[in-house]
Amino acid sequence: MKKIRDYINRYSITIVLLSLLSIAVCSVSLVNGRWVYASVRMAINKPIPTNNIPTPAVIMAGAWLNDFEKSHPDNECASDLLVQIKYLKGEKLAQRFTFDKHMATTIVTREPVDLNINSNKYARVFRTRIRQELEKEGVNFAGHYSIVSIGLTGWGSNDYIINRKTGKAFVFPYKAYSLGFNKDSNLLIVNPKEDLLESIKDSYSYSENCGDVWNWVDGPKFTDLRPLYFLWQNDELKLLGPENVEPTINRFWEGYF
What we know:
Blueprint: H1 2-26, E1 28-31, E2 34-37, H2 38-45, H3 76-90, H4 93-96, H5 121-125, H6 127-137, E3 145-150, E4 158-163, E5 169-171, E6 179-180, E7 187-190, H7 193-201, E8 228-233, E9 236-241, H8 252-255
Antiparallel strand pairs: 1-2, 3-4, 4-5, 6-7, 7-8, 8-9
């Protein structure tokens, strides 16, 4: 017993310190990569009341359009956009020029002909990618033609029209934000009305519609775009309307080559 008492007296301070350390270790735990005491851990794990936290406002695409025509910012962008929106809403040519009124007269009934690379110097350069797109798209325009778009040129997407009866390639000379066409119709629409309106509705601010379309020097802005209607006849484009809007020439055909 004496030895035990001597041992306790000698190491009493050490025993007390070890006991305190044991209590401390039991009182801490790893939370989110940090060691914290039980009292702190309780505060971390305690549910945070949400009744006093304001809910952030959800911005809906196109919400800015609700009052845009009545009260819009006084700047050039907003004014140009307002003119564009009013033009698109009042545009009647979309009802006049429809695919069903301009049906193709010749339909390809046999295996479509491959690209003739000797028919067009521009198509020859991009023949591999054009052929890939022809394989994917098939006949998609005017009964026996394929419209294919080739991008990653540094000039955006550029369009070709391929006659699938002869393999002859034509470049589409104009730059388009989007194209509207149909497998059974020879009507071709540049910047369809519904596409422009949809793009405006999908924006979160009017200012998203104010930039250059293709980042050209002195190039058109999005607010400059208008629908144009063409008829494809005898391997040529004929502008149906509107007569007071000039199509944008695609600079790629001269600038790239």
